[in-house]
Specification:
By secondary structure, this protein is α/β, with parallel strands linked by helices. The chain has helices spanning about 15-25, 35-45, 65-75, 90-95, 110-155, 175-180, 195-200, 200-205, 250-285, 290-320, 330-340, 345-350, 370-385, 445-455, 480-485; strands at about 5-10, 30-35, 50-55, 55-60, 60, 80-85, 100-105, 160-165, 170-175, 215-220, 225-235, 240-245, 330, 355-360, 365, 390-400, 405-410, 455-465, 465-475. A 5-stranded parallel β-sheet has the order 2-1-3-6-7, sandwiched between helices. A 5-stranded antiparallel β-sheet has the order 9-8-12-11-10. Strands 14-16-17-19-18 form a 5-stranded mixed β-sheet, covered by helices on one side.
């Protein structure tokens, strides 16, 4: 052997010690001897033996217990136990405790040398494998750190603000845009800190008092008037990602649009109200003949129709721009029945067959009941409007894959394939819709806005002449989480 190994003998018996020394007195070994437990500990503290041989009884203690404690303390160092008599129970216990091998009386020098050499070779293989594995792991870690640094460099150049936290809301990464928005100029002064400790912004704190599983977005308003639209996304096994986009220009545009729409509708309502007043006063100024009364009635109907369209327009604008955090449990079947009730007479007049199929378990939604009512009203009104006399309107409410599904199917005229990509756009009317059919083409855009505001999906399946099915999928009701609504310090995720 080219290497030199220090062997430590924890043996008190002089004859036994002499036998081991004679057998192991070769140039490759440096022999150290411990006569008691104190000396054994001293040698182990001052040097690193390659192998230790412990007598069955040493310094008044059980050699098996001493050998076991050495294995636990030095896991990679081979420990051999000497037994005066071969005992299968002790041998089994020694192997269970991690002792590499045992030497039993009567001893032969060649057996001692062979077992020591085998133990040292095995320990060397383990050390070589450990070093190789450590080198490989280090290379992989360095590669991953390099990739992480590249990813951090890319995220740092993103124009939107990005903050990545672990599952306890400690900041792991924050790009330059986010640091600039919150006035954090010191490099890495924020890393590892609690999110609200590093960024004590009141709007950000308000974000975490919301139920983020239902409303995962929030507006962060700064003193200078600019606004960030923030959204939080949970990443399994990692934590959360908060993205922030400058919303100032859009907010100003939306405010300008609302003000313009309010001005337009108010400007239109005033003359229409005056016109209705004049029409109502005509009878007071003199009697009207039948032709005049019919003309006045037609004007009255047209003005009321314009007022209805203005109401639809105002409602659509308010629903699209509204972010309403009001939430409650909504039973879908009860809501559906309450929406159908006022339309029952019209359905009887048109001799509709109405089918309702609701799965067991009372499907529920979480949100503002007024929004879901408006969603169903528009879908049902569409079905009633475009289904001919004697047609069928079907409703399905189900809960597949932990979701709430609502389907409204009619046997009406259907929607041309070329129109289907545009039917959820504001003011769009199908190419096969007659001019005398009422409506501004706002209903389905309102439905889509409501569905998407609750993180849902809506789509249409239709074939001209064979009817239409609108499918809405929404998250189901989930009870409020107390820790999210009351714990502003965000000590950890639910």
């Amino acid at each position: 052997m080219s290497e030199r190994y220090q062997l430590l003998l924890a043996i008190e018996n002089a004859e036994l010690l002499y036998l081991f020394k004679c057998g192991l007195s070769v140039p490759a070994y440096d022999i150290s001897v411990a006569q008691d437990r104190v000396e054994l500990n001293t040698i182990l503290q001052q040097s690193s033996p390659a192998l230790v041989i412990v007598d069955q009884s040493f310094s008044g203690e059980n050699g098996l217990e001493i050998a076991s404690s050495l294995v636990e303390r030095f896991p990679t160092m081979p420990v051999l136990l000497y037994l005066e008599n071969e005992n299968l129970d002790i041998l089994a216990e020694a192997l269970k405790l991690g002792i590499k091998d045992c030497l039993c009386s009567p001893l032969r020098v060649d057996e001692i040398v062979l077992k020591v050499e085998n133990s040292l070779k095995r320990a060397k293989r383990i050390r070589d494998w450990t070093r190789l594995e450590a080198t490989r792991k280090t290379a992989v870690l360095q590669e991953r750190l390099s990739e992480l640094q590249k990813m951090e460099d890319v995220i740092d150049q993103i124009a939107d603000g990005v903050i990545i936290t672990d599952r306890r809301w400690n900041i792991a990464m924050m790009n330059q845009s986010a640091r600039r928005e919150f006035g954090i100029w010191k490099d890495n002064d924020w890393r590892g800190k609690q999110l609200l400790e590093a960024i004590p912004h009141p709007s950000l704190q308000a974000f975490f008092t919301k139920r983020k599983d239902i409303i995962p977005y929030h507006e962060i308003v700064f003193d200078d008037g600019h606004v960030l639209s923030a959204r939080i996304t949970s990443v399994p096994e990692i934590g959360s990602v908060i993205t922030m986009r400058d919303f100032t220009e859009f907010t100003h545009e939306e405010r300008a649009k609302r003000e313009f729409n309010q001005t337009v509708t108010s400007s239109l309502r005033s003359p229409l109200t005056a016109l209705l007043g004049y029409l109502d006063s005509l009878e007071k100024w003199g009697s009207l003949n039948d032709a005049q009364r019919e003309c006045v009635l037609n004007i009255h109907v047209s003005v009321n129709r314009i007022n209805e369209r203005l109401d639809e327009f105002s409602e659509q604008r308010s629903l699209v721009s509204e972010i309403n955090p009001y939430m409650e449990r909504v039973y879908v079947e009860d809501l559906l029945n309450s929406v159908l009730a006022p339309m029952k007479q019209k359905m009887i007049e048109k001799q509709f067959l109405v089918k309702i199929n609701v799965c067991p378990g009372k499907p529920q939604l979480n949100g503002n009941p007024a929004h879901f009512r408006k969603m169903l009203e528009h879908l049902i009104e569409n079905a009633v409007k475009f289904t001919p006399q004697g047609g069928t309107i079907s409703f399905i409410v189900d809960t597949p894959n932990d979701q709430t599904l609502i389907q409204v199917t009619d046997t009406g005229q259907g929607i041309p394939l070329c129109d289907q990509p545009y039917i959820f756009e504001s003011y769009f009317r199908g190419s096969n819709v007659a001019e005398d059919v009422e409506g501004f083409g706002l209903g389905l855009s309102v439905v889509k806005s409501i569905v998407e505001s609750y993180r849902g999906r809506i789509w249409v399946d239709s074939e001209p002449g064979r009817g239409t099915t609108f499918t809405v999928v929404l998250p189901p009701y989930s009870p409020p989480k107390v820790s999210e609504t009351q714990n502003v310090s965000i000590q950890g995720p639910d």
